[in-house]
Write a structure and sequence with these properties.
The radius of gyration is 23 Å and the shape is globular. The protein has 440 residues and is an alpha/beta fold. Strands 5, 6, 7, 8, 9, 10, 11, 12 and 13 form a nine-stranded mixed sheet that branches. Strands 2-3-1-4 form a four-stranded antiparallel sheet. Helices cover 47% and strands 15% of the residues. A hairpin with a 6-residue loop joins strand 2 and strand 3. The longest helix has 20 residues. It folds into four domains: 123 residues, N-utilizing Substance Protein B Homolog, Chain A (Orthogonal Bundle), CATH 1.10.940.10; 26 residues; 49 residues, 2-Layer Sandwich (Alpha-Beta Plaits); 212 residues, Vaccinia Virus protein VP39 (Rossmann fold, 3-Layer(aba) Sandwich). The chain has 20 helices and 13 strands.
């Protein structure tokens, strides 16, 4: 009998290994929600921990194989990694449980021939010292591709690269958006401990407790949303006719609606499935949903506010999507750049004179950020950057940013016309933002 948490974690890891699925979405699936609180926490730890340390796990497993360079079936490799993570990183799990259930998972996946090998390798591994990662190690010691760490060190400095890698190896911060006046007190009454957000007055960080199982969450009084993501929507500001070009899953659209209750909002996305899922969460005629590709749409100059939060490599979100480090390469960065240029170029056509457009990504790569802006603005005239320091001051005066948060953004995230959060430097995902306006 395989423990439910291990069975679910194994299936998630196998899907990540064999499809383009993301662990963050898989961990919100029904089979995970059906687990007990303890099992859901363990399944999350097993799946994300195995992905975070996959490179180092492989380095420990491979020398113990009879043929270290052999190609393993995905299920076999997944069972080995899952067992190795428990043996090397989780001191509360007995070795016999980690080994025995990894062997059983191998059998149940149809790879019975490899069960003996999995058993032998994990038993050898159990005799090795446990892993103890030190935060002071060089960036290369963390489980990231070397090319990725080196480019971060080149762009942001070695200390920042070290901070990014260290942040990515820890469980991601769980942040909330308070969407109801009584939400915070109700969460406290349900035994959930909260801390203030780093920047925003409506953000909270979860210290302890299971928000997903709370009545407050079921009522929709709070949303789980990274504070960097919340900040992007707040920076966009106010408008009467608003376009969200790449809206799904809808967290930023919800903030636009909160901030602009009388506005007409068009939520556009290329994915009908994701947009339909988003539609079910909005019971408001204020938002019009449109399945369309922003890279191909010919917009009329009618919007006074556009949020252009484009698809990207997501390298700023590796803490919550650890598999990104294995899927992204420099060719993918270039491909994303080309698509982002198309989306932004089209979106700029939709700005009415005097209108504002916020361009943002959750990527750490300059090719997807500054380089996209430079290329688009070199091709067209009539647009100029807006000083984000002024926007930060406005949000502080409105009570959206608390004073300490505004100070931190000015000192650590603001660089001229660009704002960038870095994981580890800031306790949130990595985001980039810049604000443009159409000349009147």
């Amino acid at each position: 009998m395989i423990a439910p948490a291990r069975a679910v974690a194994f299936e998630i890891l196998l899907k990540v290994a064999t499809t383009d699925a993301h662990s963050d979405e898989l961990l919100r699936a029904r089979d995970v929600d059906a687990l007990s609180v303890q099992d859901r926490a363990l399944a999350t730890t097993l799946a994300l921990g195995t992905l975070r340390w996959q490179m180092k796990l492989d380095n420990r497993i491979r020398p113990l194989l009879a043929r270290p360079d052999a190609k393993l079936a995905p299920a076999v490799e997944t069972a080995l990694r899952l067992g190795a993570f428990q043996l090397l990183y989780l001191d509360r799990i007995p070795a016999h449980a980690a080994i025995g259930e990894s062997v059983e998972l191998t059998k149940q996946s149809g790879e019975t021939y490899a069960a003996g090998m999995v058993n032998a390798v994990l038993r050898k591994l159990a005799r090795l010292p446990r892993v103890c990662e030190q935060s002071g190690e060089s960036p290369e010691a963390f489980a990231h591709p070397r090319w990725m760490v080196e480019r971060w060190a080149r762009f942001y400095g070695r200390e920042a690269a070290r901070a990014i890698c260290a942040y990515n190896q820890q469980p991601a911060t769980v942040s909330l958006r308070l969407a109801h006046p009584g939400a915070e007190q109700s969460l406290t009454d349900e035994g959930i401990a909260l801390a203030p957000g780093e920047f925003l007055t409506a953000a909270r960080r979860v210290v302890s407790g299971d928000v997903v199982r709370s009545e407050v969450f079921r009522r929709g009084w709070v949303r789980i949303q990274d504070e960097g993501s919340q900040l992007m929507a707040e920076l966009a500001g106010r408008g009467a006719n608003i376009l969200d070009t790449c809206a799904a899953p809808g967290g930023k659209t919800a903030i636009l609606a909160e901030r602009n209750p009388d506005a007409e909002i068009t939520a556009m996305d290329v994915s009908r499935r994701r947009l339909d899922a988003m539609r079910r969460n909005f019971q408001d005629d204020q938002i019009r949903f449109l399945v369309e590709d922003a890279a191909e749409t010919r917009f009329k100059s009618q919007y006074d506010l556009i949020l252009c939060d484009v698809p990207c490599t997501g390298t700023g979100t590796i803490a919550r999507n650890p598999e990104i480090r294995f899927r992204v390469n420099e060719a993918e960065i270039a491909r994303q750049h080309d698509r982002q240029v198309k989306i932004l170029s089209r979106a700029l056509q939709g700005l009415a004179p005097g209108g504002r457009l916020l361009y943002s990504t959750c990527s750490l790569e300059p090719e997807e950020n500054e380089a996209v802006l430079a290329e688009c603005l070199s091709r067209t005239s009539g647009f100029e950057g807006v000083a984000l320091d002024r926007e930060i001051s406005t949000l502080e005066l409105e009570g959206v940013l608390h004073a300490e948060g505004a100070r931190k953004l000015r000192e650590t995230a603001l660089r001229g016309r660009f704002l960038r959060t870095l994981p580890g430097v800031h306790p949130c995902d990595g985001f980039f933002a810049t604000l443009l306006t159409a000349r009147q």
